[in-house]
From TrEMBL:
<dbReference type="Pfam" id="PF00155">
    <property type="entry name" value="Aminotran_1_2"/>
</dbReference>
<dbReference type="InterPro" id="IPR015424">
    <property type="entry name" value="PyrdxlP-dep_Trfase"/>
</dbReference>
<keyword id="KW-0663">Pyridoxal phosphate</keyword>
<protein>
    <recommendedName>
        <fullName>Aminotransferase</fullName>
        <ecNumber>2.6.1.-</ecNumber>
    </recommendedName>
</protein>
<keyword id="KW-0032">Aminotransferase</keyword>
<dbReference type="InterPro" id="IPR015422">
    <property type="entry name" value="PyrdxlP-dep_Trfase_small"/>
</dbReference>
<dbReference type="InterPro" id="IPR004839">
    <property type="entry name" value="Aminotransferase_I/II_large"/>
</dbReference>
<feature type="domain" description="Aminotransferase class I/classII large">
    <location>
        <begin position="31"/>
        <end position="375"/>
    </location>
</feature>
<dbReference type="GO" id="GO:0008483">
    <property type="term" value="F:transaminase activity"/>
</dbReference>
<comment type="similarity">
    <text>Belongs to the class-I pyridoxal-phosphate-dependent aminotransferase family.</text>
</comment>
<keyword id="KW-0808">Transferase</keyword>
<dbReference type="InterPro" id="IPR015421">
    <property type="entry name" value="PyrdxlP-dep_Trfase_major"/>
</dbReference>
<dbReference type="InterPro" id="IPR050596">
    <property type="entry name" value="AspAT/PAT-like"/>
</dbReference>
<dbReference type="InterPro" id="IPR004838">
    <property type="entry name" value="NHTrfase_class1_PyrdxlP-BS"/>
</dbReference>
């Protein structure tokens, strides 16, 4: 049977594949510490679940909803974003989608034509490049000198085909945050060259140690008009399984997303929409509590990882829940041929599952998620240290 070039040209998601593998090993009785996917180890707060149960019991969740979600949820998201960014959106500026991932996919479908180029700074989240390719466009990876791209670095990669840039802050996997000044210069440059700014703000509520998060949506009206905002409920409300993300943009863009979503998924599960409505209109203190826990884990784990021979954490993460140490030296000292071989042996021998940096465009690194219990994190750091010392 003939299969499409397009599908064969796509690399499966390493985060999902490795997470599934670690979960399977655990199910088979292996004592694996799974630090692969960024999946909060918290359950969804109970008031959110209760709203979902009530929606099921009342029968409200039994039917299709509009493709972009129920009006109440779209309006609540618009209010929430307006509160955060002092903007003036209404429900027609909002599309609710199957996770932030599908928001990004739908945006790519709406913004890109075949041959268009999208600037993607390294390190990048696994799915950006593949989604761009699925839209027939071309990912152009921009390697910054120091984790965050500058206008000069972007300008060096700009061509007449450059259509969009994806800015992810706090960044997965490095955990770094773009400052207001950095975003302003990128934003002004994008406005000048009519380049669409795709702001992936998925980790906006997970910021630590007095660092400040600034969104492209906080900047000048011209930059705002050029920005498509993507966010979601998975990380801030521990709702990965519910699959709720959203896009906020100009109404014309949302109309086009409506057409795409109407053919690709219809609405997200109605029950998830009622859960999300309770999340965004209800008590926000749960998000704060989870944030506090992540901060404590970051502050505990950061020095422990830096103490592992050959592990080098150049900059302390400021947000999200990942650590991205450079392990080039450890790989060499332990005589592994590649970071992948190192990661595989770490899983097989020490039963610690992490993601090789190649999934994020930087081979010499590994990514660990600290959305795991403190007990597991401390044990994982100990196992990794022992593993490296044994192989040295
Ligand atoms: N976004 C999370 C991660 O980077 C979840 C898995 C995924 O969707 O890639 O691990």
């Amino acid at each position: 049977m003939k299969l499409s070039q397009r599908s064969q040209n796509i690399t499966p998601s390493a985060t999902l594949a490795l997470s599934a593998k670690a979960k399977q090993m655990k199910k088979a009785g292996v004592d694996v510490i799974n630090l692969t996917a960024g999946e909060p180890n918290f359950n969804t707060p109970y008031h959110i679940k209760k709203a979902a149960i009530a929606a099921i019991e009342s029968g409200k969740s039994d039917f299709y909803t509009p493709a972009l979600g129920i009006d109440e949820l779209r309006a609540a998201i618009a209010n929430f974003v307006n509160w955060d960014h002092k903007t003036n959106f209404d429900k027609d500026n909002v599309a609710v989608t199957v996770g932030g991932k599908f928001s990004l996919y739908a945006v790519a479908q709406v913004v890109l034509d075949p041959g268009d180029e999208v600037l993607i700074p390294l390190p990048y989240w696994v799915s950006y490049g593949e989604q761009v390719k699925l839209a027939g466009a071309v990912p152009v990876f921009v390697k910054p000198q120091a984790y965050k791209v500058t206008v000069e670095e972007l300008e060096a990669c700009r061509t007449p085909k450059t259509t969009a840039i994806i800015i992810n802050s706090p960044q997965n996997p490095s955990g770094l945050i773009y400052t207001r000044e950095e975003l302003e210069s990128i934003g002004n440059w994008a406005v000048e060259h009519d380049i669409c700014l795709i702001a992936d703000d998925m980790y906006s509520k997970l910021v630590y140690n007095d660092n400040e998060f600034v969104s492209l949506m906080d900047l000048s009206p011209a930059i705002r008009r050029q920005t498509i905002l993507v966010n979601g409920f998975s990380k801030a409300y521990a709702m990965t399984g519910w699959r709720v993300g959203y896009t906020v943009a100009d109404k014309q863009i949302i109309k086009l997303i409506n057409a795409v979503v109407g053919h690709e998924t219809s609405n997200i599960a109605a029950v998830s929409q009622y859960a999300a409505l309770a999340a965004i209109t209800g008590d926000q203190s749960y998000t704060k509590k989870m944030r506090d826990a992540y901060e404590e884990r970051l502050n505990t784990l950061f020095p422990m990882l830096n103490a592992i021979p050959g592990f080098n954490l150049e900059r302390k993460p400021e947000g999200a829940f990942y650590l991205f140490p450079k392990v080039e030296e450890a790989v060499l000292m332990c005589h592994f041929a590649s970071t992948e071989a190192f990661v595989q042996a770490l899983l097989d021998e020490a039963h610690v599952a992490v993601v090789p940096g190649s999934a994020f465009g930087m081979d010499e690194y590994i990514r660990l998620s600290y959305a795991a219990s403190m007990e597991d994190l401390v044990a994982a750091a100990g196992r990794m240290k022992e593993f490296v010392e044994k192989h040295m």
